[in-house]
Design a protein that fits this description.
- By secondary structure, the protein is an all-alpha fold.
- It has a domain of about 45 residues.
- About 0% of the residues are buried.
C-alpha cells in the first residue's frame, strides 16, 4: 500500500512541476507569444497580403488584396427596379399599422 501512495505522490509532484514550469515559460515569453498571435491573426484577416500598400499588395501580380474577389455588381446592392412590387411595411408598435 505504501508503494502505491509513493507512486501517486511522485505523479502528483511531476504534474505540479509541469504546471508551474509551463506557467513560468508563458510568463517569461508572454510578449513574444502575444506578438506571434497578433501576426497570425493579421495574416488570417488579410489573407497573407502582408500590408495594404505596394503594387503587389492590391490586386497585383502576387494576387494580393482583391485577387480572389468577384468582379461585377455586388450581390447585396439594393435593387432599383421601379416596376418591382413594393413590400408591405412591417407593423410597428403592438401590431398596429401606420396610418
Amino acid at each position: 500500500m505504501q508503494k502505491v501512495i509513493n507512486v501517486l505522490a511522485i505523479a502528483s509532484a511531476a504534474v505540479s512541476v509541469a504546471v508551474v514550469g509551463t506557467a513560468g515559460y508563458v510568463y517569461v515569453n508572454r510578449e513574444a507569444i502575444i506578438e506571434d498571435v497578433k501576426e497570425k491573426a493579421m495574416e488570417a484577416v488579410l489573407g497573407g497580403a502582408g500590408g495594404l500598400g505596394g503594387a503587389a499588395g492590391i490586386g497585383g501580380a502576387a494576387g494580393g488584396l482583391g485577387g480572389d474577389l468577384p468582379v461585377g455588381a455586388p450581390d447585396l446592392s439594393p435593387q432599383t427596379n421601379p416596376q418591382a412590387t413594393p413590400q408591405a411595411e412591417a407593423p410597428s408598435g403592438f401590431g398596429v399599422s401606420k396610418f
